[in-house]
Structures are given as structure tokens and as C-alpha cells.
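Dear colleague,

Following up on Tuesday's group meeting, I ran the structure prediction for the two-component complex that the binding team flagged. I've pasted the input sequences exactly as they went in, so you can double-check that nothing got truncated or mislabelled along the way. The C-alpha cells for the whole assembly follow below. Feel free to forward this to whoever is handling the docking comparison.

Inputs:
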Amino acid sequence: MAYLRDGLVTKRRWVDDQEFVEYLAISQTLPGLNATNMAVLVGDRLRGMRGALAALFAICLPGALLMMIVGAAYQAHGGKPMVIAALKGVAAAAIGLILATTIQLGRKSLAHVFDLVFVALTVFGVDQLHQSVPRVLIVVGLLAILWYRPRKPKETAQ
Amino acid sequence: MTQLIALLRVFSYLSILTVGGGLAAFPEMKNLVVNVHQWLNFNQLIHLYSMGQVSPGPNMMMIVAIGERVAGIPGVLVVLVAFFGPTAVLAFFIGRLWTRLAKWPWRASIERGLTPVSIGLLLAGCLSFARGAVTDWGTAVIAAIVFLVLLLSKINPAWLVLAAAIVGGLAFGPKIV
């Protein structure tokens, strides 16, 4: 994300900082990968539907080609004991990496103690109760949205 | 042909589950591609997902390798359209609408409320992935070291992954000597 911000805001000046934060919030709220959502939003902002399509293709194509090569190599050599052993190490590193990324994201975006309750409810629903993601999303999501519903100015007392 | 239709259905469904990131769809992806369709086993999914995680590009691009495995190049194309199409269309239209709703009070509530839920979905994805990736003391130690080093320093994760591959090869591989 820092990389994306650097490219879009600092170098190219395609969007300003405020727009970037706004698009990031939309990207994270909507389903879809943050990077591809961001590409669609910024592409649309600059050149409409064509821009959105071009940006989506550009962000997908290199990775897709790379993963096709990786997939073919894995198909050919994935059964070798040495490859399995090395990938066991890589998978262990990957869980360390994704857990660190998730914790860092959480530290940045969770502000209230009730946020942790909603995090816990979601994890419990998917991981322990084995409920489908859409069901958990609808139940816990609605609960959380209602919890943070718009208050009348009187209540928020500025 | 039936396989292509199955790929289309599975990956367009997974597409709309990626709230917060691709990892949110991992538990459901495991269920569908491993248990239901048996396109690959859990271990192979873990391998491909970790390689996708450490490759440049969107982190879920490893789905391309699943499409390739199941149905060759047509499989790749179907998976790409199925997985990236629906959310791109959604981002396009909701994005336009959302910018216009800047003053709508519920907008902030929705963003505020869905943030912890999306973090929860990512964590559930981490747990599901960890069950396949952390299987013994050795993998637990590697995962813990990578986790701590990343939280405490700004090192490029690629070095840690490379080190983990070498350590994995040496520790878990066939004895060379």
C-alpha cells in the first residue's frame, strides 16, 4: 500500500492524499483485493470506464503470467522431496508474514474496544462455528454497522 | 466444459468474499477446491498460496495456477474473469455512488462497522492457513521468527522467505550427507 501511495500520489500526482485515503477506505470496505479495487477507482477517476479497465488489466497481467510459470514449475517439480521441504519452510514464513500484515493493519484501523468484540465474533463465527463467510458478514457486519450508526448531533456532543 | 463451469462458479463466489483482502476467502476456498472439487490437496493449496503470497502482484493471483492445473489456458482465463470480474464491476459502480454519498451519515457507519469485521475475516483466514502451514515445532519456530522480525524491523520480507526456503530444505529435506 505504501508503494501504491508513493506511485499514485507522490510520483504521478494522479490523485491527492485526501482522495487516496478516500479510495483506500472504499477499497477496503468493498469485496475485492485492495490493489485491484484501487486500480479500478483511480482508473475511473482519470479516464472513466476505459481507464478502469486498463488499470485492472495492468495490475493483473504481470502477476498472472508469473503465477502461470510458477504453477507449471510446481506441476513439474512439486512432488520432489527437496521442493516439498523448501516449500514447507516458505509456507511457515508466509503465515508469519500474513499474520504480521494483519496485525499491523488491525493496529492501524481498530480504534475502539468494541472493534475487538466484532473482530472476535467474526473469527469465532468463521473458524469455530464454521459458518459461511457471507452469513458471518451479514450478521456481524449489520450488528457492527448498527452499533456505529449515525448519532444525532446532541449525542455526539462536540 | 463441466470443469470450466465449476471453476467459474467457485471463483466468482470466492470473489465476493474477499472483504478486507484475499485471505478472507481462504477458509471457503479451502473447502471448495480441496474438499468439494478435489482439484488439489490441502498441502498443495498451502504451497501455491504461499508462493502467491511472496510473489509480486495481487496476493490471490495464485488462483491462476489452480485454473491452469484443472483446465489449462482456458482454465486460467475463466478463473481470472470469474475472480476479478465481479468485484471490479462492483468497485466501478459502487465507487461512483460512494463518492456521491460523501455526506450520507450511514456511509461512515458502514465503513466504521465493516472494518473490524474485515480484520476478523483476515484473522480467520490466517488461522485456516496456519493449520496447514504450521504442522510441527520446526514450522512453528520459522513462523514465529518471521512474524517477530517483521513486527520489529523493516526488513524486506523476501529475504526472510528466501531464508525460510533454505532452512526448510535443510531441516525438512532428504539428508544429503
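DSSP finds seven helices and no strands in chain B.

Cheers,
M.
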